[in-house]
UniProtKB/TrEMBL annotation:
GO MF: ATP binding; ligase activity; metal ion binding
PROSITE patterns, sorted: ATP_GRASP
Highest taxon, organism lineage: Bacteria
Pfam families, A to Z: ATP-grasp_5 (PF13549)
Keywords from the named record: ATP-binding, Ligase, Nucleotide-binding
Name by which UniProt lists this protein: Acyl-CoA synthetase (NDP forming)
Gene3D superfamilies in UniProt: ATP-grasp fold, A domain, ATP-grasp fold, B domain
């Protein structure tokens, strides 16, 4: 039995809209709003439709800023040059948006709008995510993220729901565990922030357990973690197409 919660209801509304539009999942802005409903920290930001003045929309955000183009045709934004970091002020933001739209590889993509966010401080990059396995139900992944995810392949998995003890054990099992103690100028990681973020996805009341019947996968990469905070810099959620929702097999207490 699936418990109805405000977080679940909000997520269902977004996922249904994406499915009605023929998309495999919500855009990054909407995915972050879903994740935030379950307690995952996200950057302060705004979604700006194509014809809205980007300077006015982002006026209350504190630089440096991040600009991301939102399109169902652009999954890996760096490959399309659809993301810009370290934008120093609002005027430069508008200029950067115009330059991004002039990129040849973006000329034919469908444009939803832009995501403008306050840029997270440089910190250790982890990945948290998971999938709904046909046999085991929700499974949480946690490991070294960012550009090193595919290179190092240093991740751990646990069947959900997970506990704080499970998450600390996953971290201790990483080959690059010492990165969390501070490395080459980066501050040591506040493990409690990592635990809280992982519980937001894989805990008994987390996103994976609560939405196991309507999503197939979630990916938070990178999770920027420092000595005082953890922020989900990028979130991707894949829904299940209409008619393929499954019975909840999470085993979570409802």
């Amino acid at each position: 039995m699936i418990r109805t919660t405000s977080a679940r209801d909000a997520a269902l509304s977004v996922l249904t809209r994406a499915d009605d539009e023929g998309r495999i999942g919500p855009n990054e802005y909407d995915a972050k709003q879903i994740a935030a409903e379950f307690g995952l920290p996200i950057p302060r930001g705004v979604f700006v439709p194509p014809h809205q003045d980007i300077r006015t929309a982002a006026a209350e955000l504190a630089p440096p800023l991040v600009l991301k183009l939102m399109s169902p045709d652009v999954v890996h934004k760096t490959e399309f040059r659809a993301v810009r970091l370290g934008i120093p002020d609002i005027e430069t933001l508008a200029e950067t948006r115009d330059a991004m739209l002039a990129e040849p590889q973006l000329a034919s993509v469908r444009l939803d709008g832009f995501l403008v966010e306050e840029m997270a401080e440089a910190s250790t990059e982890l990945v948290i995510g998971g999938k709904i396995d046909d046999s085991f139900g929700p499974v949480l992944m946690l490991g070294v993220g960012g550009i090193f995810l595919e290179v190092l392949d240093d991740v751990a998995f646990r069947i959900c729901p997970v506990t704080s003890t499970d998450i600390l054990g996953m971290l201790d099992g990483l080959r690059a565990r010492r990165l969390l103690d501070g490395y080459r100028g980066l501050p040591p990681v506040d493990l409690s922030k990592v635990v809280a973020a992982a519980l937001a996805l894989g805990g008994a009341e987390g996103l994976l357990c609560e939405l196991a019947d309507v999503i197939s996968e979630v990916d938070v990469n990178p999770l920027m973690v420092g000595s005082t905070s953890a922020v989900a810099a990028d979130v991707r959620i894949l829904g299940r197409p209409s008619g393929t929702a499954t019975e909840d097999t999470s085993g979570a207490s409802r």
